[in-house]
């Protein structure tokens, strides 16, 4: 696994500051086998690795013409382990993965095409899937169906259907993934077809158009395809409230950072300006915990007057410096006792609820069903209050997970409900 924090920090550099960057959808293509591993050997002597590679490069050509960014797991006739293929696809920040193979079977009569994907409804105990692939079952299934339909339509191959499968490259990884079995090299008719250029080209057309049906070129936030928060994110984008990360992705499953959160708030609210020199925010009273993403607390901190520059881990080169500075001066973002602001640290669900409740003017609440929010918990009133408004849910009927990081998808759902309730105009407060 990569180091998630290092990755998050790198990604944060490009976040929310690239308005209008289109970002091509990115596809990883994986020609099966290679090098010392020929894969199946056809009744006509054809090597599977050769067919796979040829069809894969044809798919690449078609996709690139349509504006996709395409990378291949191997560019030469070389051996690559299954884990190396998974490591490679996960290193690419891509939107989907398609492995291309040809089949073989004991009975020479069996022929046709099939598409494999991981389906969490049919788990295999000895071959556990990655957590991401379990969650991505609907997306992988949809991609598999689109590719199978187009493949069969273009190539005329017999349709053997979708196959829920736990093969390595589709049950591991972090993006929708499928494996296309183009035909059976153990069947004389299929093997003859796989030897023909025109048939390989039609197969490639089918795979490429199936990919395009699942993820049209130029899709905004391609990583939200099939995601529950997609509509909410697109509504926020239309209001200028959210933008993509580098590469045009939204990264819905990543935890929101402090810098991202105050950037969003700065767009939503006219943050109060601290009185010059006082260092005190104009915000309301309330308890304060060190480092919290909220404030207006009992202590008027000197750094509130100096702004974000008061902290040793923030300089004017930070992508969110202006928003951080505004939030610190408004008293809604506080630092830590060691003099850091930690802008790239995640915000918790309690911190988000607390600040949104205050800034929105929603009333605090009392009753709530969350067993993990004890009586007297510092953000209890905010959590109960926002739940009363219907803007926020628990992670289940009786759990709020207050100390858990809030994901970017959860934040979008929350802000979408808030903006709908507040009847905000399409023009954000800062005029962007
Ligand atoms: Zn194979």
Automatic annotation (TrEMBL):
Keywords: Hydrolase, Signal. Residues 216-279, 307-370, 371-429 form the SLH domain. SMART domains: Ami_3. GO terms for molecular function: N-acetylmuramoyl-L-alanine amidase activity. The keyword tRNA processing does not apply. Gene3D superfamilies: Zn-dependent exopeptidases (3.40.630.40). GO terms for cellular component: outer membrane-bounded periplasmic space. Residues 1-24 form the signal peptide. It comes from the Bacteria. GO terms for biological process: peptidoglycan catabolic process. PROSITE patterns: SLH. InterPro entries: MurNAc-LAA_cat, N-acetylmuramoyl_amidase_3, SLH_dom. This is N-acetylmuramoyl-L-alanine amidase. It comes from Paenibacillus mucilaginosus 3016.
């Amino acid at each position: 696994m990569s180091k998630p924090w290092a990755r998050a920090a790198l990604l944060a550099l490009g976040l929310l500051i690239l308005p209008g960057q289109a970002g091509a959808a990115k596809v990883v293509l994986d020609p099966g086998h290679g090098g010392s591993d020929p894969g199946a050997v056809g009744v006509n002597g054809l090597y599977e690795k050769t067919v796979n590679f040829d069809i894969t490069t044809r798919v690449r050509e078609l996709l690139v013409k349509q504006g996709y960014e395409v990378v291949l797991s191997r560019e030469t006739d070389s051996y690559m382990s299954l884990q190396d293929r998974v490591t490679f696809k996960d290193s690419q920040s891509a939107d989907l993965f398609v492995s291309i193979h040809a089949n073989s079977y004991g009975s020479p009569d069996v022929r046709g095409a099939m598409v494999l994907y991981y389906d969490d409804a049919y788990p295999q105990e000895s071959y556990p899937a990655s957590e991401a692939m379990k969650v991505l079952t609907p997306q992988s299934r949809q991609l598999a169906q689109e590719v199978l339909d187009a493949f069969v339509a273009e190539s005329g191959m017999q349709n053997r259907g979708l196959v829920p499968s736990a093969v390595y490259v589709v049950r591991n990884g972090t993006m929708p993934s499928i494996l296309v079995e183009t035909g059976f090299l153990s069947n004389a008719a299929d093997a003859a077809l796989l030897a023909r250029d025109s048939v390989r080209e039609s197969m490639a057309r089918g795979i490429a158009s199936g990919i395009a049906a699942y993820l049209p070129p130029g899709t905004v936030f391609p990583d939200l395809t099939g995601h529950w928060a997609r509509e909410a994110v697109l509504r926020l984008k239309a209001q200028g409230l959210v933008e993509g990360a580098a590469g045009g992705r939204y990264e819905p499953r990543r935890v929101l950072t402090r810098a991202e959160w105050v950037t969003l708030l700065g767009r939503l609210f006219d943050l109060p300006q601290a009185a010059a020199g006082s260092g005190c925010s104009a915000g309301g009273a309330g308890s304060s915990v060190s480092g919290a993403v909220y404030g207006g607390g009992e202590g008027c901190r000197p750094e509130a007057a100096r702004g974000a520059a008061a902290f040793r881990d923030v300089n004017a080169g930070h992508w969110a410096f202006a928003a951080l500075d505004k939030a610190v001066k408004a008293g809604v973002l506080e630092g830590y006792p060691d003099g850091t602001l930690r802008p790239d640290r995640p915000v918790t669900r309690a911190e988000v609820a607390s600040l949104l409740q205050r800034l929105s003017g929603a009333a605090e609440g009392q009753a709530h069903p969350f067993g993990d929010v004890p009586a007297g918990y510092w953000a209890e009133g905010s959590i109960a209050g926002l739940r009363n408004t219907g803007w926020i849910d628990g992670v289940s009927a009786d759990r709020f997970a207050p100390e858990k990081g809030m994901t970017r998808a959860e934040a979008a759902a929350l802000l979408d409900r808030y903006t709908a309730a507040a009847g905000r105009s399409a023009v954000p407060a800062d005029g962007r």
